[in-house]
Amino acid sequence: MNVQIVESPAKLDTVGADFVAALIGSKPSATVLVATGQTPMGLYAELGARYRRGEIDPRSIRAIQLDEYFGLSEDDPRSLYGWMKRSFVDPLGLDPDQLVRLSGDELDPETICRRYDEAVRDAGGIDLSILGLGPNGHLGFNEPPSDADAPTRLVSLSEESIRSNGTYWGGQDRVPRQALTAGMNVLLRARNTLLVVSGAHKREILRRTVHGPVTSEVPASYLQDAANVTVLADRDAWPEDVTFN
Ligand code: GLP
After folding, report:
1. Is the distance from the beta carbon of residue 42 to the nearest atom of ligand 1 less than 6 Å?
2. Are 82 and 118 a contacting pair, CB within 8 Å?
3. Which of 5, 176, 180, 196 gives 20 to 30 Å between its CA and that of 72?
4. How far, rounded to the nearest angstrom, does the alpha carbon of residue 152 sit from its chain's CA centroid?
5. What is the CB neighbour count within 10 angstroms for residue 75?
6. What is the DSSP track for 15-74?
7. DSSP 3-state of 117
8. Which among 69, 7, 2, 3 is positioned nearest to 234, based on CA atoms?
9. How would you classify the pairing of strands 229-234 and 193-197?
10. How many helices (H) and strands (E) does the chain have?
11. pTM greater than the 0.90 cutoff
12. What span, in angstroms and rounded, lies between the C-alpha atoms of 105 and 206?
């Protein structure tokens, strides 16, 4: 794992955007998996600003959805695709044919997941996965315990995820109880991963992610064994006693 610690959330946004911009610059047709959640929002806003200034060219990238609540209508304000569209797809001017989505209201969950995996494969796999860190160590909605082979699937959300997601939608009652998630077996195959982590409330789970045993109880800990993982954390999130070289 590469670790980069920055002074502030604002710095996380610009350094994270530098990272994504460099990848898109070196591979204009890159496939980029895009997490929602609060942490990468400033990074995406920074990318949008760079696009408007003509500093990056995302016309040939493919954007891949990470997860989605199950059973919401397309236009439900809580849709994670809707969040991805507002924060990443629209600010970067992406067209629908540049997207790989994890949804399909009319289909059963297994078919949605199988089609998603095929679409990711057909796109050539994931060049860059931009991930946040769940408060319980989940990636996407791979709730503990999830092992490295956990496939793309329908999951029931843990109490902890319902609580943390409640902050997005004005209360836990507003959080759907089930979700679809890209599998660990998809995420761990990404050619590059950028894990963005911000705030003191993430410090303990970040410690277990980068320093603890590799275990299905902390799904993000499998990133210790994955290729080309960069952990980008602000100082509040980084456990001071953990050193990295
Ligand atoms: C959520 C999502 C993840 C997200 C993570 C961290 O539950 N399922 O995709 O990356 O938790 O969210 P945040 O960045 O808001 O802390």
Report:
1. no
2. no
3. 196
4. 14
5. 7
6. HHHHHHHHHHHH-TT-EEEE--SSTTHHHHHHHHHHHHTTS---TT-EEEE-EEESS--T
7. helix
8. 7
9. parallel
10. 7, 10
11. yes
12. 35
133 Cα nearest atom in ligand 1: 6
Q: Ligand 1, residues 33, 34, 38, 39: which to mutate, most atoms within 8 A of Cβ? A: 39
Distance, in Å, from the CA atom of 98 to the CA atom of 113, rounded to the nearest integer, reads: 19
Q: What is the pLDDT of residues 101-136, one digit of tens each?
A: 998 777 899 999 999 999 999 999 999 999 999 999
Place of tokens 């924060």: 87
* Ligand 1: centre distance to CA 165 (Å): 8
Number of neighbours of residue 22 by Cβ within 10 angstroms: 12
Question: What are the CA-CA distances from residue 58 to residues 37, 51, 93, 109, 119 (Å)?
Answer: 22, 8, 8, 31, 19
Place of tokens 């902390």: 218
Tens digits of residue pLDDT in 181-217: 999 999 999 999 999 999 999 999 999 999 999 999 9
**φ, ψ dihedrals at 192, nearest 5°:** -145, 145
Q: 108: which 2 tokens?
A: 């059963």
Whether 42 and 13 have beta carbons less than 8 Å apart is answered as yes
Find residue 132's DSSP bridge partners.
196
Measure 132 CA to ligand 1 centroid, in angstroms. Answer: 5
CA distance 139 to 71: 21
Residue 53 carries which side chain, given as an amino acid letter? R
106 given a catalytic annotation: no
